[in-house]
């Protein structure tokens, strides 16, 4: 196939740079390949460009330079290709990004939108989609909250609704932007285990952004260290040494 | 080797789906009821009376024809009334803001000193909103005589109802977290209101104020009809003596003025709120 990427890659970034309108450069010439089935983490301090990198991968933040290629689809700058790519790419957000007054089920059903036309989506989605949504809620352990409005759920529960929504897309790739940053350690471990189990069982590639090294070491099989918009480490957790960490966690923007 | 997930379809799914569907049906019934209410209103006001609409359309075109071309010959005489209308809208809005600021604190459930004050303030807001400015204008013309003064007072008093209500609602919707923070540093209740609630609701208040100014500018023209001065009086006079070409010229002047006021209020709002 013409658009197929080499090997196991599912998405590839080539020399991607992102500069915001007010002049801040968030990413500088990033080249990166995400592979099928891997559970990877972007590690970095806040402001290092983690969120921008994740958002570039599904074009929520289109790169100012460079290209993002999806395996079997092509360059994401094409709107049709982008829609197909987003359909198979689930995203989980730090602040959940749920509609608070809607029930968990309604929120999860949003994950099925790309499978239907605009007019069809004005009516309740078919039974099959509703069952997929319920199945996803069951997998995250929230089946008994299906009809509960999201605003009464706890932070950890909301995040699980967010995971169920991403899962309802039947994704091949899962992007998670700081999925545990606003959770207590117990809930954080629960969410990480859940993500890991689901991605392994369904063969979903995952890219998470985290700022806690312990979580990255414990759960992930690939670490991408990001500092000042550049990749300074890319490899298995075992290869990550203290000088890499020092570089990741040294904030040169603060002048004492 | 991880085991692939097997979708389970237990009976609990059916129960949830039934309930979900029932909710959707309820919503559908509500929407249909609303739609039938709207259709009934259309019938009542004869919007669906084809015959009337059919005869009305040519008559409208005839009238429009008589309005063309606009006659600007009296333009110099309109300058003073335009200025009056502008002054009325500004003074009226200022009166409304002045009265609304104390009233909204009484009428917001989270800042009111006492439930009785709350209900009285709400009642005052409802009453001023319930009396149309046109009626208020007629009453005030009878009380203080013709001119700009009754018009301005009518605008100010009627505006209190809407401005005060919106201010109070903004206060009620303000975030409680900074209020808690202000309390925790030992601020008194008035200090909490001024330093924690007002900064949050200020942009919303500015929005409402400038929107109301714009509204009052338009409303002050209608008030001209009951003898409250301004450009509205000119329009009504021209209509009475069937000078439709002057009416269209006046309407164009008004259109330009409304556009200017709209632009100016947008500019000021941005400038204020930043």
UniProtKB/TrEMBL annotation, chain A:
<keyword id="KW-0067">ATP-binding</keyword>
<keyword id="KW-0813">Transport</keyword>
<feature type="domain" description="ABC transporter">
    <location>
        <begin position="11"/>
        <end position="253"/>
    </location>
</feature>
<keyword id="KW-0547">Nucleotide-binding</keyword>
<dbReference type="InterPro" id="IPR027417">
    <property type="entry name" value="P-loop_NTPase"/>
</dbReference>
<keyword id="KW-0918">Phosphonate transport</keyword>
<dbReference type="GO" id="GO:0016887">
    <property type="term" value="F:ATP hydrolysis activity"/>
</dbReference>
<dbReference type="InterPro" id="IPR012693">
    <property type="entry name" value="ABC_transpr_PhnC"/>
</dbReference>
<keyword id="KW-0472">Membrane</keyword>
<dbReference type="Pfam" id="PF00005">
    <property type="entry name" value="ABC_tran"/>
</dbReference>
<dbReference type="InterPro" id="IPR050086">
    <property type="entry name" value="MetN_ABC_transporter-like"/>
</dbReference>
<dbReference type="InterPro" id="IPR017871">
    <property type="entry name" value="ABC_transporter-like_CS"/>
</dbReference>
<keyword id="KW-1278">Translocase</keyword>
<protein>
    <submittedName>
        <fullName>Phosphonate ABC transporter ATP-binding protein</fullName>
    </submittedName>
</protein>
<dbReference type="GO" id="GO:0005524">
    <property type="term" value="F:ATP binding"/>
</dbReference>
<dbReference type="GO" id="GO:0016020">
    <property type="term" value="C:membrane"/>
</dbReference>
<dbReference type="GO" id="GO:0015416">
    <property type="term" value="F:ABC-type phosphonate transporter activity"/>
</dbReference>
<dbReference type="InterPro" id="IPR003593">
    <property type="entry name" value="AAA+_ATPase"/>
</dbReference>
<keyword id="KW-1003">Cell membrane</keyword>
<dbReference type="InterPro" id="IPR003439">
    <property type="entry name" value="ABC_transporter-like_ATP-bd"/>
</dbReference>
Automatic annotation (TrEMBL), chain B:
<comment type="similarity">
    <text>Belongs to the binding-protein-dependent transport system permease family.</text>
</comment>
<feature type="transmembrane region" description="Helical">
    <location>
        <begin position="249"/>
        <end position="268"/>
    </location>
</feature>
<dbReference type="InterPro" id="IPR035906">
    <property type="entry name" value="MetI-like_sf"/>
</dbReference>
<dbReference type="GO" id="GO:0005886">
    <property type="term" value="C:plasma membrane"/>
</dbReference>
<keyword id="KW-1133">Transmembrane helix</keyword>
<feature type="transmembrane region" description="Helical">
    <location>
        <begin position="221"/>
        <end position="242"/>
    </location>
</feature>
<keyword id="KW-0812">Transmembrane</keyword>
<feature type="domain" description="ABC transmembrane type-1">
    <location>
        <begin position="82"/>
        <end position="265"/>
    </location>
</feature>
<keyword id="KW-0472">Membrane</keyword>
<protein>
    <submittedName>
        <fullName>Phosphonate ABC transporter, permease protein PhnE</fullName>
    </submittedName>
</protein>
<dbReference type="InterPro" id="IPR000515">
    <property type="entry name" value="MetI-like"/>
</dbReference>
<dbReference type="Pfam" id="PF00528">
    <property type="entry name" value="BPD_transp_1"/>
</dbReference>
<feature type="transmembrane region" description="Helical">
    <location>
        <begin position="86"/>
        <end position="109"/>
    </location>
</feature>
<keyword id="KW-1003">Cell membrane</keyword>
<keyword id="KW-0813">Transport</keyword>
<dbReference type="GO" id="GO:0015416">
    <property type="term" value="F:ABC-type phosphonate transporter activity"/>
</dbReference>
<dbReference type="InterPro" id="IPR005769">
    <property type="entry name" value="PhnE/PtxC"/>
</dbReference>
<feature type="transmembrane region" description="Helical">
    <location>
        <begin position="28"/>
        <end position="48"/>
    </location>
</feature>
């Amino acid at each position: 196939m013409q658009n197929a990427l080499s090997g196991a890659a599912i998405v590839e970034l080539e020399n991607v740079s992102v500069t915001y309108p007010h002049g801040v450069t968030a990413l500088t010439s990033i080249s990166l390949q995400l592979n099928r089935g891997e559970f990877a983490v972007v590690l970095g301090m806040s402001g290092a460009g983690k969120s921008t990198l994740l958002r570039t991968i599904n074009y929520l933040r289109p790169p100012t330079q460079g290209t993002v290629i999806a395996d079997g689809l092509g360059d994401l700058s094409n709107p049709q290709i982008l829609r197909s790519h987003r359909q198979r790419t689930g995203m989980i957000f730090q602040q959940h990004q749920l509609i608070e007054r809607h029930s968990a089920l309604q929120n999860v059903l949003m994950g099925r939108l790309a499978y239907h036309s605009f007019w069809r989506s004005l009516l309740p989605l078919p039974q099959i989609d509703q069952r997929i949504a319920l199945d996803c809620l069951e997998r995250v352990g929230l089946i008994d909250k299906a009809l509960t409005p999201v605003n009464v759920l706890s932070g950890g529960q909301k995040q699980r609704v967010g995971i169920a929504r991403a899962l309802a897309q039947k994704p091949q790739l899962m992007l998670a932007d700081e999925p545990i940053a606003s959770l207590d350690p117990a809930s954080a471990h629960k969410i990480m285990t859940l993500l890991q189990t689901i991605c392994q069982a369904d063969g979903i590639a995952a890219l998470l952004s985290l700022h806690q090294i312990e979580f990255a070491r414990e759960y992930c099989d690939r670490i991408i260290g990001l500092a000042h918009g550049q990749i300074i480490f890319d490899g298995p957790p075992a290869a990550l040494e203290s000088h890499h960490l020092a570089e990741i966690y040294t904030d040169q923007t603060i002048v004492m | 080797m991880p085991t692939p997930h097997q979708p389970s379809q237990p009976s609990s799914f059916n129960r949830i789906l039934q309930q979900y569907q029932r909710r959707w049906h309820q919503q559908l019934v509500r929407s249909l009821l609303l739609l039938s209410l709207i259709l009934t209103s259309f019938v009542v006001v004869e919007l669906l009376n084809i015959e009337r609409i059919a005869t009305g359309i040519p008559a409208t075109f005839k009238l429009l024809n008589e309005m063309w071309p606009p006659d600007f010959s009296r333009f110099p005489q309109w300058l003073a009334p335009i200025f009056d209308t502008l002054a009325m809208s500004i003074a009226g809005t200022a009166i409304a803001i002045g009265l609304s600021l104390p009233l909204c604190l009484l009428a917001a459930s989270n800042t009111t000193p006492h439930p009785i004050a709350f209900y009285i303030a709400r009642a005052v807001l409802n009453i001023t909103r319930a009396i149309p400015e046109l009626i208020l204008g007629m009453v005030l013309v009878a009380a203080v005589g013709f001119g700009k003064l009754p018009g301005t007072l009518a605008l100010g008093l009627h505006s209190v109802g809407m401005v005060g209500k919106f201010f109070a609602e903004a206060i009620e919707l303000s975030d409680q977290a900074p209020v808690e923070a202000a309390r925790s540093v030992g601020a008194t209740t008035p200090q909490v209101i001024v330093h924690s609630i007002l900064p949050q609701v200020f942009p919303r208040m500015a929005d409402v104020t400038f929107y109301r100014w714009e509204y009052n500018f338009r409303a002050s023209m209608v008030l001209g009809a009951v003898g409250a001065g301004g450009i509205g009086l000119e329009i009504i006079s021209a209509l009475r003596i069937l000078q439709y070409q002057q009416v269209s010229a006046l309407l164009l002047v008004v259109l330009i003025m409304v556009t200017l006021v709209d632009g100016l209020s947008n500019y000021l709002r941005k400038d204020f709120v930043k």
